Amino acid sequence: SWCHGFSYFLITGTGFIGRNLVGYLVNNDLVTKVRVADKVPPQMAWLNNKHKEAFVNPLVEFKHSNLINIASVESAFADVEGPFDFAINLAAETKYGQTDPVYQEGIVKLSLNCAREAAKRNVKIYIEASSSQMYSADKPEDEEMAATEEKKCDPWTFVAKHKLSVEKELKSIPDLNVVIVRPAIVYGPGDRQGLTPRLIIGAIYKYMRETMKMLWTKELKMNTVHVEDMCRALWFLCNHGKTGEIYHIVDKGDTTQGKISELISTIFNIEHEFVGSTMSSLAKLNMNSIVEEINDKHMEPWADACQRDNVTNTPLNPFIDQ
């Protein structure tokens, strides 16, 4: 079918979603070529065996690129066979707790460099993977109602604030056929920042033999989407997405903090409790130092547990952002 004969350009394709998308595209025979541009080569990206296999497929090319640099972006997009059909930007400085200039470079500058180059090369569809941390739930009715794509944005993390400014800028790039996606918490093989930090924290509380305490309540929404579904959605939108549209990507599970905590408690055989809204609202006033304290509390037992089991190097950590 016509869906099978396209070439894909993946921006930061060795990251969590990128590695799964490479696997999805080649294993389902959906491409003529996939080029992955990233500053982290596959050999150093902690790929599992299944993902390693996908990257050695002859249809996959890796291009070592620093996409904050315009010359590097031009070289990454250049191809003797002509422009790529689709480009998907999975890039973002997703590490929490960074400074503003780091996000400005790693999210805004990088994304706009790639989008302008894609427009110049007449890419059929350019997908921008944005963030769903766009909707504040300060009013009680916000918690009850699922946010629609039209809802007014009020980003509540630094990453989302910068992602929103990218979304706004993209609209002003001439000849850019852009589709914006806002995924929920993405989890699955290779996840480091979605649900994995909570799993690590569960393991830490088992190690410390303590009750796992969490801010807010069990009703707190933590909508999720499995990375395989995310990949299917990205492929579908390349072929059927409407230019200029924003799409939420989320499962129907209506996941809450309570559901996730129940599962983690079962896995590690630990107790958990929530400090509730009143205490959490008070904590909000001093969130910076509270988060710092929590991270300090978790880091030492995590380091001890890794040492005990001879884990000398790992990309995982229990670090949380406010």
UniProtKB/TrEMBL annotation:
Source taxon at top rank: Eukaryota
> In what residue span(s) does the NAD-dependent epimerase/dehydratase domain sit?
10-249
The residue range of the signal peptide is none
Q: Which InterPro entries match?
A: Epimerase_deHydtase (IPR001509), Lipid_A_modif_metabolic_enz (IPR050177), NAD(P)-bd_dom_sf (IPR036291)
Pfam family of the protein (one): Epimerase
Q: Which PANTHER family match?
A: BIFUNCTIONAL POLYMYXIN RESISTANCE PROTEIN ARNA, LD23561P
- Please identify the protein, giving its name as recorded: NAD-dependent epimerase/dehydratase domain-containing protein
The root-end lineage is:
Eukaryota, Metazoa, Spiralia, Lophotrochozoa, Mollusca
